[in-house]
Recover the amino acids of this structure.
């Protein structure tokens, strides 16, 4: 078997579809051309976020990440939803779904328009009845706050 | 002479209620609900035999049923590691009288809160689950309790279009298939449409249940159901019949329909039976006069040579200390937090008690994945993991001597059985909760 780039190309052409290969080549070429001719000066982080922001990519936030890790302890029992309904809450996002959503990537939430859905509609009153019944001790009111703050 | 009960599930509540009734000074550290709030509303003492969990169930469905007490006796012989066998040995008469006393006590405590168990030691009821499967049940909470299909002539399902986790047509198809597969007599299954008053039904089961708590909404639903039943008919409803006044609502609907009305069995967040059961337990504990601390135990120092146990409790308003002469640990397993993961292993976080599976192997101190076996039909050592106890329910150290003074275990924290597979979770919580309370009271005399 050949090594290096030519070996890679041979493997690639044998396993990949032609459509995939042509897409790869075109994207690579476009990237190189952009780097050569359209290169802007300025903060590279801002440039990155300006470019990938519409896809839902945000600067990392350690507090949000810690909350997401807490939310990932969810056992999906749904007791928070029951407690929320019992105390008469009407949050735009059901607490159980909010917790499940937070344990996922924010990128997905922003891309799927969930953040916009949360900004509209009646707000969660923040009574925190939901977290009092959570067997996994997830601070669900903070999760709701975090989702509302997502832009 | 304070006795502390750690745990807010069925075992903890029962132990607290029993101690309060004896006049002991008892403090329950309740925290959030555990696994008993996730129950479907059925209450089995010993539903299936541990070797072949589905056999007893299928036998009951074919009408060749063992009674609850016969199944309990069978379990004492078949599963020596089961908490029942730890408590009663092979003494079926002692187990039966404890079971009768336990059910009577629980019904007495729950009755004022509209949640008394309904059922019979002599014969099990055949209840429908939301996928259309049938389940033999010894006792049930007021929502699903009236739905015994074993003797009914006709089944009618209330349609609830758009409600999450419930589809009347799907359940109806399942029921027809289940009856045929079991060789039972076919019964006509029909669907009752257009019964929901305007503005009552939406996708969220919890909101529908909360709306049905208003007497006007219940009356409107009862009017829509008027005369839709008939002799020998059972009307099955989605499991959303109210939160606080289910018993009254079911009675009201049954009177209007002219036949039995019951919820199908399902689980949260699509069903509220376990949640209601747990709320009724909490109300009963409050009414008993026992002190309740809403918090979780952060650290526990077991007193030796007659010294008190020291508990460090974290509540929403801050930390607090509690000294107790005796302790009932009813912290549950994975849902309740009695067993917790730590660096890829499973541990008992409060006292570091040794954990064993149903075959007696130690499972703490080894990677948790080694306690999981391949295959769906096989039993899983991890799901039987828990603390080993002696007949007084004292936790045992590795060599078999009691691990701490005046500490007693109750509920799923006790290992040696799989609560879901053997369907004895709630039964064990009830009987061990009562027994741990008795042992704790005796230890202080």
């Amino acid at each position: 078997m050949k090594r290096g780039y030519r070996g890679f190309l041979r493997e690639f052409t044998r396993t990949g579809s032609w459509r995939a290969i042509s897409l790869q080549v075109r994207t690579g070429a476009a990237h190189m051309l952009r780097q050569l001719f359209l290169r802007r000066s300025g903060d590279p982080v801002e440039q990155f976020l300006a470019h990938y922001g519409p896809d839902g990519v945000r600067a990392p936030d350690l507090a949000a990440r810690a909350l997401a890790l807490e939310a990932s302890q969810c056992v999906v029992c749904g007791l928070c939803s029951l407690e929320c309904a019992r105390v008469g809450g009407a949050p735009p996002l059901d607490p159980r779904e909010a917790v499940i959503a937070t344990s996922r990537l924010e990128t997905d939430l922003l891309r799927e328009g969930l953040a916009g859905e949360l900004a509209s509609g009646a707000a969660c009153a923040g009574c925190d009845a939901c977290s009092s019944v959570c067997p996994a001790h997830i601070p669900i009111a903070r999760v709701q706050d975090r989702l509302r703050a997502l832009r | 002479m304070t006795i502390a009960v750690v745990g807010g599930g069925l075992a903890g509540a029962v132990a607290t209620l029993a101690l309060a009734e004896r006049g002991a000074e008892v403090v329950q550290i309740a925290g959030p609900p555990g696994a008993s709030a996730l129950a479907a509303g059925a209450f089995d003492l010993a539903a299936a035999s541990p070797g072949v969990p589905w056999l007893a169930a299928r036998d009951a469905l074919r009408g060749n049923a063992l009674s609850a007490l016969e199944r309990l006796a069978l379990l004492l012989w078949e599963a020596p590691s089961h908490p029942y066998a730890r408590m009663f040995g092979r003494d079926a008469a002692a187990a039966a009288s404890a079971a009768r006393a336990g059910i009577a006590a629980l019904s007495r405590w729950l009755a004022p809160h509209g949640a008394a168990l309904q059922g019979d030691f002599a014969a099990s009821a055949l209840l429908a689950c939301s996928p259309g499967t049938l389940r033999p049940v010894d006792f049930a909470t007021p929502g699903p309790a009236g739905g015994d299909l074993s003797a009914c002539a006709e089944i009618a399902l209330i349609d609830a279009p758009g409600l999450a986790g419930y589809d009347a047509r799907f359940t109806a198809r399942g029921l027809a298939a289940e009856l045929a597969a079991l060789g039972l007599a076919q019964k006509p299954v029909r669907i009752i449409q257009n019964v929901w008053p305007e503005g009552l039904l939406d996708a969220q089961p919890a909101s529908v249940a909360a709306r049905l708590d208003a007497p006007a909404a219940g009356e409107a639903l009862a009017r829509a159901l008027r005369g839709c039943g008939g002799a020998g008919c059972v009307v099955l409803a989605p499991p959303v019949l109210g939160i606080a006044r289910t018993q009254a609502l079911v009675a009201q609907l049954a009177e209007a329909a002219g036949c039995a009305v019951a919820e199908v069995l399902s689980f949260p967040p699509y069903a509220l039976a376990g949640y209601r059961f747990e709320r009724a337990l909490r109300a009963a504990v409050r009414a008993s006069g026992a002190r309740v601390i809403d918090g979780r135990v952060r650290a526990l120092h077991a007193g030796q040579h007659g010294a008190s146990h020291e508990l460090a409790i974290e509540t929403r308003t801050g930390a607090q200390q509690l000294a107790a002469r005796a302790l009932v640990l009813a912290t549950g397993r994975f849902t309740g937090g009695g067993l917790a993961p730590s660096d890829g292993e499973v541990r008992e976080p409060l006292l570091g008690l040794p954990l064993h599976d149903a075959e007696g192997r130690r499972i703490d101190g080894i990677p948790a994945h080694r306690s999981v076996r391949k295959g769906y039909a096989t039993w899983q050592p991890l799901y039987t993991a828990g603390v080993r106890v002696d007949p007084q329910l004292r936790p045992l150290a590795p060599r078999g001597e009691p691990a701490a003074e005046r500490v007693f275990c109750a509920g799923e924290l006790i290992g040696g059985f799989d609560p879901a597979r053997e369907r004895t979770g709630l039964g064990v919580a009830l009987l061990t909760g009562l027994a741990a309370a008795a042992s704790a009271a005796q230890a202080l005399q």
The two ends of chain B are 10 Å apart (CA to CA). Chain B has two domains: 3-40+276-443, 152-266.
